[in-house]
């Protein structure tokens, strides 16, 4: 029921694309390849994401979708490939940045939500502290501002504020994801990366988290890349879908197009398996 | 010609106890530490006739710096007469022929645990602090290799995070001793377990400070006229302990860092933590000619 409602929303939004497509892409990735020993994780993958758009990446486990997302967050460098973000004072291939510039870029311009909250959060620190750390890295040194901005970010991710000084380890999975989300959006990043943000949550909590994401996307027009093996999540969230298999992109297009009229064998299997 | 005329006379140990190669190693690392203020330099920490954790790091630096014309003062929790201070001081003088003193103004080399003297140190004096835990990032990053990367990246956000959470939880910064401080705008160091009261004394000081941890095998330095800024929020100022209004019950001196001495009636008496300052004040009151030098704090306020 939730998915039907939100699907309707996607279609309403998709009336906007003409404007969307006339702006230059925010994220451009070309010819990214990565091998780990004999394993080809990514082979000649290219992707573009337009400002305000949600790109969904689907594929089975091991298809390279998380690796691609890690590359987008500059956590790993490919063997070959080019990565650009159309942001002021950011020119050239981002894979060529030194670690200082890379760390600053990741902290201030890119937000990420991991599947496993342990990866993205400091579990022994408070939830508001986790958000504050982001701001501290960016150079915020006023306690009052840290507190206020942390509160705003947690509020935006619909986190119950009376628990903002609880440690994430004491919180439920859905709440932990909300803390991660608050941390990711605290600095109003240009790009938000979501790595299986709702996997491991039960269906009702999953719907609530997706609702929050949807609302954020609508209110702030954040550009998002969402990786999931769950077609329901992608269908709810994404404007455009990229289907990956064995480190290659097998098909991409508008999400309606992919879900209604899949062309590639694998996509057809995937869609039909779901339906 | 006899062999004895060509060789040195037998001695029970090298000058200054440590052998020449150990001192060379330490000197190199000390020079490096001065060159990069606040950056921890690893060094080959030697055995000294004292257990690890009793100031072996400080002792090695002091032994390296000693010369026969040195005048050494050793402070343990502000006192010159505690067993640890007295035995380190007599050891230093025994192995080097250096003079011993309790007077901050007369000393050329001061080894200290927990305190920086209340009287201003002047150019040419060297302060050696014994450090139990040199790594300010240890509470936030148990993995020391990652902590070193964080130092390289100047990634100190989590240290502020600790302060943030202390204010959230307790309404004020709870960090008592070893307050993390930014040296020369680049490296955050632990200024050994000195109280907050003593941290401002390191800022733009005339003297050279070495901090050395024997067990952890790390030393770092604050050269003269180097900025040492305690980590603070722009809207929560750094505060030293509220000792400005306390009076020493023995010397009657007011406005310095005090030791609290619980009394039988449940109250507290206070005495100067810097014991020799108290002795000087008492001597002065009794009409003896003893000079108290300029102090960092005056009437409990940083001068």
The portion of residues assigned to helices of chain B is: 25-40%
Architecture of the largest domain in chain A, CATH level 2?
3-Layer(aba) Sandwich
Q: N- to C-terminal separation of chain B?
A: 65 Å
How many independent structural domains of chain B?
3
Instruction: Fill in the CATH topology of the largest domain in chain A.
Output: Rossmann fold
Tell me about this structure:
The complex is a heterodimer of chains A (275) and B (303). Chain A is α/β, with parallel strands linked by helices. Chain A has 2 domains: 2-109 and 189-274, 3-Layer(aba) Sandwich (Rossmann fold); 123-188. Chain A is built from 12 helices and 9 strands. In chain A, the strands form 2 sheets. Chain A has a 6-stranded mixed sheet with strand order 5-6-7-3-8-9, sandwiched between helices. In chain A, α6 crosses α7, α6 (127-137) runs parallel beside α8 (173-185) and α7 packs across α8. The radius of gyration of chain A is 18 Å and the shape is globular. Residues 1-18 of chain A have low confidence and may be disordered. Chain B folds into 3 domains: 20-136 and 178-228, Bacterial phosphonate metabolism protein PhnH (Rossmann fold, 3-Layer(aba) Sandwich), CATH 3.40.50; 144-176, no CATH class; 241-289 and 299-303, no CATH class. In chain B, 26% of the residues lie in helices and 18% in strands. In chain B, α2 packs across α3 (56-65). Chain B is globular. Classes of the chains: A alpha/beta (275), B alpha/beta (303). At the A-B interface, α4, α6 and α7 of A face α6 of B.
Supply the key terms.
heterodimer; A: 275 residues; alpha/beta; Rossmann fold; three-stranded antiparallel β-sheet; B: alpha/beta; 3 domains; 7 helices
How are the SSEs placed, and which strands pair?
The complex is a heterodimer of chains A (275) and B (303).
Chain A (H helix, E strand, L loop, with lengths): L1 H12 L3 H6 L4 E10 L2 E11 L4 E6 L5 H8 L7 E6 L13 H10 L1 E4 L3 H4 L6 H11 L5 H14 L16 H13 L5 E5 L7 H18 L2 E5 L3 H7 L2 E6 L2 E7 H6 L4 H10 L1
Parallel strand pairs in A: 3-7, 3-8, 5-6, 6-7
Antiparallel strand pairs in A: 1-2, 1-4, 8-9
Helix pairs in contact in A: 1-10, 6-7, 6-8, 7-8
Chain B lengths: L2 H4 L13 H16 L5 E2 L13 H10 L5 E6 L6 H14 L2 E2 L8 E5 L12 E5 L13 H9 L4 H14 L10 E3 L3 E3 L18 E6 L4 E5 L5 E3 L27 E5 L5 E5 L2 H11 L11 E2 L2 E2 L1
Helix pairs in contact in B: 2-3
